[in-house]
Write a structure and sequence with these properties.
Keywords: Cell membrane, Membrane, Transmembrane, Transmembrane helix. The protein is built from 15 helices and no strands. With 424 residues, it is an all-alpha fold. It folds into 2 domains: 20-200, no CATH class; 203-408, no CATH class. It is globular, with a radius of gyration of 22 Å. The model is unreliable at 1-21 and 413-424 (pLDDT under 50).
Length: 424
Amino acid sequence: MTVRARSRVGRSDAPVVPRSGGRAVLALLVGGLSSGGNLLVAITVTRLESIGGVGEFALAFSFYVLGSGLVRSMVTDAVLAAGTGVTSAARRVTLLGTVCGAVLGAAGAGYGSPYLVCVGLALPGLVLYDYTKAIAVGVGTPSGALVQEATWAAVTGGAALAGLLRWVDAPSVVGVWALGGGLIGVVVGVRRGYALRPGWRVGRVESRVAVGFGTQFLLTTGSAQLSLSAVAAFAGTSVVGALSAGRTLLGPVNLVLSTAATLTLPYLARSRTESRAVRSRAAVRVSLLVAAGILPMTAAVALLPDAVGRTLLGGNWDLARSLLVLLALESLFAVPAAVGFAGLRVEQANRRAILLGILLGGLRVPVVVGAAVLFGATGAAGALAALALVSAVAWAGSYLLLLRHRAAHRAPAHRRLDPVPPGG
C-alpha cells in the first residue's frame, strides 16, 4: 500500500512543487481580501482626517510598503525562485524588519507622528506577515494564506467600523490595523515552525545578490515611495494627501498587481531552461493577462461618479477627482515593468537591474518633486504616469534584449546573425 505524504512549507527546506489549478484563484482571493482591508483603512483615515493628516498617513503606509518590498526583493523572491530555504530565510526577514522598524519608529517619535510610530513598532511583524503570505501563495498552501488574510481583514474591519462610527480616532484605527497584522504575522510564523530569531546566515555570494537586488528595489519601486517623503518636504503634506486620496481608490488595483507579481516570478522561472521564443512568449502572455485583469478596475475608478466618490472620500474627493485618470495610467504601465523586473530577477541579471534602477531612480525623485512644486498634485500625478511609462519600456525591453543576447551567444557560431570574429 502506498501512503501519500504531504509536504508543508516551513517544516522543511526541501523543494516544493507548486500545485496547479486553483492556485491562481486562491491567490486572487487573498489579494482581494488584502485589498479590501487596506482600502477600508485608507477610506476611514481619509474621511476622518484633514488633507494634511491623510498625507501623514500616506507617508507611514508608504514606509510599510517600502519595508515589505525591500524584504520581498532581498529575501522572499529568492526563496520563491528556488523553492528552498523557507525556514532559515525567515531569520533574515525578521532582521530586516526590526532594523527598518526601529528607524521608522524613531523618526516618528522625533516628528511627533502617531502613524509613523505605530507602523514602525509593527513593521517586524508586518514584513513577516508578507513573507508567510507570499510563501504560501507562491510555493506553499494558498488556503493558509487565505485564512491568514481573512483574520487580518476581520480585525481591520472592526477597527474601521469603530472609526467610521466616531468611537475612535484615525490614529487608533491605523494602530489596530498595523499591530494586528504584525501579531498575526508572528503567530503564523511560529505555527509554521519558521526560525524567527533575527540573523543573516547566508554565504557571501547570496548576500551580495541580496544587497544588489535590495539596492535595485530602492532605486526603482522604492524610489516611488521615497519620492513621497521628498514631495512632503518640498511641496507639503497636502500634496501627498491629495495623491494618497486618489490612490486610495486604486488600492485594489495595486494589490492585485502585487499578487500577480508573486505568481509571475515562479511562472517565469519554470521556463528558464526553454528557448528564447518560449520565454519571450511567456513574458508577453502574463503581461497581457494581468493588464486585461486590471483594465476594467482602473477604468471604473477613473470614471467614478461624483456621488460615489464623495461617499467614499468625503470632502477630500474634490482634490482626488482630477488625479484619477493619471494615477490609473500609472497602475496600468506598472504591469510590463513588473514582468520585466521579474524576468531579470529570474535571469539573475543583477548588474543590469542595478544600472537600470540607477538611471530610472535618478529621474524619479527630482522629476516628481519638481512637478509637485511647480504644478501641485496634478503635476506630481502627471510626472508619476510619465515615469511609469518610461519604466515599462525600460524594464520590459531590457528583459527581452537580455533573452535575445543570451540566445545569440548560445547559438552555434555559424548560425549567429552577428558572428564574433576570431580574436574579437
